Amino acid sequence: MLSVTGTWSIYIIYMAALIGFGVWMWWREKNKSAQHFYTAGNSINWFVLCMTYIAALMSTWVFFSGPGGYYRGGFGYFMSELSYMPLFPVLTYFVMNKVWLLNTRRNYSTPADLYADRFKSPVLRFILAIVFFSVSLPYAAAIYVACGQAANVASGGLISNTSIIIFVGITALMFVPFGGVKSVAWAATVQGWIFMIALWTIGISALAFGFHGTLGDAVASVWNNTNSWFSYPGPEKWAPYSARLGYPLACAIGWTIMLPDVFIRAGYFGKDLGAQRKLMQFQPVLQLIVWTGTMVIGFAAIALVPGLTGADTELVIPYLITKIISPQTMGFAVILMSLFVWGTLAKGLSAATSHLLVAGSIISEDILVHTLKLKVSPKAHMVIARISVCALGVAAMMLAINPPSLIWTLIMFAIAIVMPIFPVLVAALYWRRATKPAAILASLVGTIGVILTYKYGYGDAWYGLFGMIVSTIVLIAVSLVTKPLDDATLDEFYGHLEAAEDEYYEPDAV
């Protein structure tokens, strides 16, 4: 569809613009601390916060497995995903806003910082660092794979996945270590609009060319040929009754709160409490826009190119462009394929760079500084931070070039494996009686529980729900039979939280 020169031009121009932006941000932020490099130090305004959050959240899912998921899972799968959205403002208000308040006083850098601050446990920090790292690095690698796949498909196989993975990986490493998270956040704001426009343009175009813009004809076609698409559990039974509970909770807790790159956005980025409130209000709307656009593409594909199975369902966008649109207008099909590549690149880099920064912070802060007690000057600390991100970027690139089967397993239950840590977070914020041994055991047992549910075939429906329940039970039971931290330590932690609440909330609103 696209020429080799045209495809490479899209990648080179886009990555050159990113590198230039990263250098500019580095020049502005070059004297900032490592904490500012990783979290922007509560300086992101509400609009950028909302856009970088949605860009980090969605990854390349929206152009590959997302439309394929709706193709195979049907409208019931779409409704299962939407059902969690009322929970997001609630969880953000009662949990992540408190994380943000604490961060204004405690200046955290990594997701594990808050837990270690509350429970004073290097062991807990190390456990959480391993869990969060095991999520971040494979995610970045999988996104590089998707960028390579997009170029390969768009060029008709003339460009190899490996060449694009290496190019994108190297140029991303030239972008991220310069400006840090602030450059990533501002770039993601632009990239977020790019991928949403690309998504909806492709979906509307497929319906327009396939059914001349008549939605009723598209619905009738699917109803006559694959009417199971409109009902539970869907054409391939992706949305059984168990998934109606497990999947929405996994989305609400694991995906939109506890994944490490979105955790620091929801808890550490916001400039003020107004930005946090805007995040609560606008994120469900933005997610609805993205998921509906993705569903429209899956719906158009089941109507126009039925019969796809397995991995082919993840390529429904190229199929729609090449089989439905290009026979009618090659020029517009080329534009749409360019949008597909551009959108994949924009979306992928937003998420990949976010995960690389989090993984780098885990290595430099949680492991080197806090676990191994490395003591260096602030300038050397910044050098270590940038080297950590570069090293992990190379590791992600190597994983992407030759991905082991384990990487796909980790991606599948990434949102599940972080769910057992959520009860520990809630207890840290609200329950003085929660103890250090309880937090450690709950995190370990809950994570093992999630792994076992996948091993025995329950994970695809229940995700991390069983692990989270076990974690909650262990946390409460062990806390009641073990000694809490001394009052002075607890008073310091909760005193900072109360002081922040007094500063940011009006008296009658507390």
Keywords:
single chain; 22 helices; mainly alpha; Sodium/glucose cotransporter
- What about the largest sheet? none
Spell the H/E element sequence. HHHHHHHHHHHHHHHHHHHHHH
**Number of helix segments?**
22
- Span of the ends, CA to CA: 59 Å
What's the count of strands? 0
What is the fold named in CATH at topology level?
A: Sodium/glucose cotransporter
Name the CATH class. Answer: Mainly Alpha
Measured as a percent range, the helix fraction is over 70%
Which percent range describes the beta-strand content?
Answer: under 5%
For the record, the CATH architecture stands as: Up-down Bundle
Low-confidence stretches: none
Q: Write the CATH homologous superfamily.
A: Sodium/glucose cotransporter
- Class by SSE composition: mainly alpha
| Count of structural domains | 1
Overall, the morphology is globular
Please tell me the overall pLDDT: 87
Using only C-alpha atoms, the radius of gyration works out to 23 Å
Q: What does this protein look like?
A:
It is a multi-pass membrane protein. Keywords: Cell membrane, Ion transport, Membrane, Sodium, Sodium transport, Symport, Transmembrane, Transmembrane helix, Transport. It comes from Desulfosporosinus fructosivorans. It is a single chain. The N and C termini lie far apart (59 Å). With 510 residues, this protein is an all-alpha fold. The mean pLDDT is 87. It has a single domain (4-412), classed as Sodium/glucose cotransporter (Up-down Bundle), CATH 1.20.1730. The longest helix has 51 residues, at 161-211. The radius of gyration is 23 Å and the shape is globular. It has helices spanning 4-29, 34-39, 46-58, 65-82, 87-106, 111-119, 122-154, 161-211, 215-225, 243-258, 260-269, 273-304, 316-325, 330-371, 378-401, 405-412, 414-417, 421-430, 436-455, 459-462, 465-481, 487-504. 79% of the residues lie in helices and 0% in strands.
